[in-house]
């Protein structure tokens, strides 16, 4: 779509700006990676270099084999997976009618979803915890032995899928707005019912937005620790962020391990971002064109 | 419930309102919305009203146990609210929060659009740049803040090492309120740019290139094109993002809380960190609940007037 041709000097300026920005954007992440490779005795260093002298993978070894990292990983994967499934299904259906249908309460509903973002999340924490407790969803009992899923995990899944939901609904609505309505009209004429038209015609076209919505849900579940810290009490049920913060509290000086855990948590997120970056541009259409 | 005459419906739609027809017409819409609505109701609305109740009570660490066991609450009316408004610190924190929000969002949107415009041009390696620039967004926030905290360390932190390399004396970032606040701003601006950049990029791609061609023929300069075509057409796309950006920044607990933990505790609090400390460090639940209601009302009033202003524009 780029019709704009720039003179060479301008391109050079742009490249310089972008390169400096990329360094600033990437350096902190590389810094953690560097810290995770440090041998125990050189935690404080005055060097700006990324790879330390005597680099070692010792911290990773300790983390994975001695600290229960794999169990936390499994728990996180479990919670994240279900959050994404639920988040995407709810957002894709709700966003669709917000985009296509005119019904009483439509505007109110959209505003309502926006309003839910305005209440400080910290204060929902206490009531939510009490509510989950009333439904027994803070218990540490395992309900699905095969997966190691506990009731508390179900509580987390419910919480997470709803936290990201308002944003996801807006995001899906924005994308549906860009798909021409004539497509469904044709489908309805061909004898499909409304749900089939949505499911068979529009949903496949909304793939970029579905990917972004999945990404939002994924990030919410994968990175959240404020709620998880309150709900989880048993070490074997921890999700990664809780495990990680506990690591930092438990051994005040184990920065290499902390950094190693951070790297291992970051890698999947970054990998997904890199894989999906082509969807990110077209698919991120918050709000969209129709208002 | 059959309609006696079709014409009548048009003459007085209200008196002929039929629930059945209404349901037939909108059934699909409501059924599709129902699951999402139930979940939000359960997780956001119920706690909201629960919190409302707490705001008028004197719940604190001493009567917490009784409350959990017997559901006993002592209501103190609007005493919590009066106390908050009378505190001199409330107004200082409110001002600081406004400054925090404005500076952050302006920087996020400004840089975001700036990078988006560059990346939308015909430039080599642009997908590589784009991917790498998104990285701050991809790192979990609590990790980011802890990394930056290390980087702001006076002796070992990368920021000061870099400053010294170019001959500027190091700054004791996390020991004074003013530098600490700047540090928090730097971290949060760094964090928030990618989101706005991606939103703006999406918006730019939906702008018809013919506009630019027409402008080119009319002899408009680059800057004129940006001012008269790009920015106005980006507005509808950026608007929801700006609203959300303001709300998120206003309610951003993690950056300031984690950055100032054990160093500048309390010194550069914004409203939400103050609430969090009141609730989970001083166990003043009633007070914190009232405080968070005030935050909600501030955001609500802001959002309504902002949306009105935009619509009127």
From TrEMBL, chain A:
It is a multi-pass membrane protein. It holds the Pfam family BPD_transp_1. Gene3D superfamilies: MetI-like (1.10.3720.10). One of its GO terms (cellular component) is plasma membrane. SUPFAM superfamilies: MetI-like (SSF161098). CDD domains: TM_PBP2. GO terms for biological process: maltodextrin transmembrane transport. Keywords: Cell membrane, Membrane, Sugar transport, Transmembrane, Transmembrane helix, Transport. The chain crosses the membrane at residues 12-30, 77-98, 110-132, 152-170, 201-222, 254-276. Its main location: membrane. GO terms for molecular function: ABC-type maltose transporter activity. InterPro entries: BP-dep_ABC_trans_perm, MetI-like, MetI-like_sf. Residues 73-276 form the ABC transmembrane type-1 domain. It is found in: Cell membrane. Coiled coil: none annotated. PANTHER family: MALTOSE TRANSPORT SYSTEM PERMEASE-RELATED, MALTOSE_MALTODEXTRIN TRANSPORT SYSTEM PERMEASE PROTEIN MALG. Belongs to the binding-protein-dependent transport system permease family. MalFG subfamily. This is Carbohydrate ABC transporter membrane protein 2 (CUT1 family). It comes from Halanaerobium saccharolyticum.
Automatic annotation (TrEMBL), chain B:
It holds the Pfam family BPD_transp_1. Gene3D superfamilies: MetI-like (1.10.3720.10). The chain crosses the membrane at residues 28-49, 98-119, 131-151, 171-191, 233-250, 285-307. Keywords: Cell membrane, Membrane, Transmembrane, Transmembrane helix, Transport. The keyword NAD does not apply. Residues 94-306 form the ABC transmembrane type-1 domain. It is found in: Cell membrane. It is a multi-pass membrane protein. CDD domains: TM_PBP2. InterPro entries: ABC_transporter_permease (IPR051393), MetI-like (IPR000515), MetI-like_sf (IPR035906). This is Arabinogalactan oligomer/maltooligosaccharide transport system permease protein. It comes from Halanaerobium saccharolyticum. The lineage of its organism: Bacteria, Bacillati, Bacillota, Clostridia, Halanaerobiales.
């Amino acid at each position: 779509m780029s019709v704009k041709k720039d003179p060479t000097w301008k391109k050079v300026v742009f490249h310089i700006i972008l390169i400096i920005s990329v360094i600033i954007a990437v350096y902190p992440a590389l810094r953690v990676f560097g810290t995770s490779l440090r041998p125990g005795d050189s935690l404080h260093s005055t060097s700006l270099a990324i790879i330390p002298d005597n680099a070692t993978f010792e911290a990773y070894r300790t983390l994975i084999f001695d600290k229960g990292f794999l169990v936390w990983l499994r728990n996180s994967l479990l919670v994240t997976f279900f959050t994404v499934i639920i988040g995407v299904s709810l957002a894709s259906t709700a966003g669709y009618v917000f985009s296509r249908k005119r019904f009483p309460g439509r505007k109110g509903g959209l505003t309502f979803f926006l309003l839910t973002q305005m209440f400080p999340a910290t204060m929902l924490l206490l009531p939510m915890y009490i509510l989950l407790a009333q439904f027994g969803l803070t218990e540490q009992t395992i309900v699905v032995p095969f997966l190691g899923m506990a009731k508390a995990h179900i509580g987390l899944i419910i919480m997470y899928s709803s936290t990201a939901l308002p944003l996801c609904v807006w995001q899906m609505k924005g994308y549906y707005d860009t798909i021409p309505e004539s497509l469904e009209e044709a489908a309805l004429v061909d004898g499909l019912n409304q749900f089939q038209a949505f499911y068979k015609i529009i949903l496949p076209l909304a793939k970029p937005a579905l990917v972004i919505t999945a990404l939002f849900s994924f990030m919410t579940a994968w990175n959240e620790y404020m709620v998880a810290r309150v709900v989880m009490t048993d070490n074997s049920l921890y999700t990664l962020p809780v495990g990680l913060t506990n690591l930092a509290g438990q051994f005040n000086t184990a920065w290499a391990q902390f950094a190693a855990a951070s790297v291992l948590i970051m890698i999947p997120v970054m990998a997904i971002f890199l894989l999906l970056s082509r969807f990110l541009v077209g698919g991120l259409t918050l709000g969209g064109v129709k208002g | 419930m059959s309609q006696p005459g079709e014409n009548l419906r048009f003459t007085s739609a209200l008196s002929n309102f039929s629930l059945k027809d209404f349901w037939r017409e909108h059934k699909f819409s409501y059924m599709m919305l129902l699951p999402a609505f139930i979940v939000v109701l359960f997780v956001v609305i119920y706690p909201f009203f629960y919190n409302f109740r707490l705001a008028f009570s004197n719940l604190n660490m001493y009567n917490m146990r009784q409350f959990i066991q017997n559901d006993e609450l002592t209501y103190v009316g609007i005493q919590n609210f009066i106390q908050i408004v009378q505190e001199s610190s409330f107004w200082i924190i409110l001002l600081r929060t406004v400054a925090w929000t404005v500076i952050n969002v302006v920087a996020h949107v400004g840089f975001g659009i700036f990078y988006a415009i560059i990346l939308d041009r015909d430039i080599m390696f642009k997908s590589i740049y784009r991917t790498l620039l998104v990285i701050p967004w991809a790192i979990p926030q609590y990790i980011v803040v802890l990394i930056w905290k290390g980087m702001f360390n006076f002796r070992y932190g990368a920021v000061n090492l870099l400053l010294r390399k170019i001959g500027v004396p190091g700054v004791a970032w996390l020991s004074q309120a003013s530098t600490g606040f700047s540090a928090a701003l730097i971290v949060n601006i760094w964090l928030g740019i990618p989101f706005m950049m991606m939103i703006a990029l999406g918006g730019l791609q939906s702008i018809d290139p013919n506009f630019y061609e027409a402008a080119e023929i009319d002899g408009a300069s680059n800057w004129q094109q940006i001012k008269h075509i790009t920015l106005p057409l980006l507005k509808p796309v950026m608007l929801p993002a700006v609203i959300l950006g303001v709300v998120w920044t206003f309610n951003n607990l993690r950056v300031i809380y984690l950055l100032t933990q054990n160093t500048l505790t309390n010194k550069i609090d914004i409203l939400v960190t103050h609430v969090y400390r009141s609730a989970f460090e001083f166990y003043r639940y009633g007070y914190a609940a009232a405080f968070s209601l005030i935050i909600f009302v501030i955001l609500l009033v802001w959002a309504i007037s902002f949306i009105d202003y935009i619509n009127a524009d």
